[in-house]
Design a protein that fits this description.
Blueprint: H1 17-27, E1 33-35, E2 59-62, E3 74-76, H2 79-82, H3 102-117, H4 120-142, E4 146-151, E5 154-159, H5 168-177, E6 184-186, E7 192-195, H6 203-221
Parallel strand pairs: 1-2
Antiparallel strand pairs: 2-3, 4-5, 5-7, 6-7
Length: 222
């Protein structure tokens, strides 16, 4: 389970949903595996998105930000879960393409230091809330057919109109390149403009992006 669906369009489940899934899984004797590859390490304003729900998953999949720009991923779990793999008798039981790469591991350790020392989780929460509020205000004034949602620096703008040229996110991705902005189309029909800026992005850069985003989205939804 993704605690917040990423490529599906920054879809946030209602409060209590994840903890209810965890309870159902444990009642059934199943493991709850959370995919926080996209949402982890401060992206949603907390170290991990699941922390807001007050439970701990049985397995946690991590990647992307973990490597500090280099390829690295991992799967975390307690000993009793990991011991489901028996001892090796000489043949690899489980492996990974980038498992334990020395340079990536060194980058990950440096990244984790910066994440803590610079308070990037808290910064994601505060700057993300400010950015979403400014963006929602600009869009309400210019592109009333859109809606802003998200958490921390995990932001989606959904358009309610489709065209033969693709959803709003698809068309916006092309239009916004001309403004110097890189966004992702997301959602089943490409109807969501996905914004995932760096947690270290300057406030001035976020503020600058609001005007072209509002203007272009207004043009595309008229």
């Amino acid at each position: 389970v993704e605690p917040i669906q990423g490529r599906a369009g920054i879809r946030i489940p209602p409060p209590g949903f994840l903890s209810a899934v965890a309870a159902r899984a444990r009642e059934a004797g199943a493991l709850l595996v959370l995919d926080e590859i996209f949402t982890g390490f401060g992206r949603t304003g907390s170290l991990f998105a699941f922390e807001r729900e007050g439970f701990v998953p049985d397995l946690l999949c991590l990647g992307k930000a973990l490597g500090g720009g280099l390829p690295l991923s991992c799967c975390l779990g307690p000993t009793d879960v990991m011991d489901a793999w028996p001892a090796s008798e000489g043949e690899a039981i489980h492996t990974s393409t980038f498992l334990g790469h020395p340079l990536s591991c060194a980058a990950a350790l440096a990244f984790l230091d910066v994440l803590e020392e610079e308070g990037l989780c808290a910064r994601s929460e505060s700057e993300g809330a400010r950015f979403r509020a400014r963006l929602a205000e600009a869009i309400a004034a210019e592109a009333g057919h859109c809606r802003v949602r998200g958490r921390g620096m995990f932001v989606g703008v959904e358009g309610f109109e489709r065209s033969v040229e693709g959803g709003l996110g698809v068309r916006a991705a092309h239009a916004l390149l001309a403004e110097g902005l890189i966004v992702l189309p997301a959602g089943g029909g490409g109807e969501v403009v996905e914004l995932t800026p760096s947690l270290t992005i300057a406030r001035a850069q976020l503020d600058w992006s609001v005007e072209p985003l509002g203007r272009r989205l207004a043009q595309l939804t008229r």
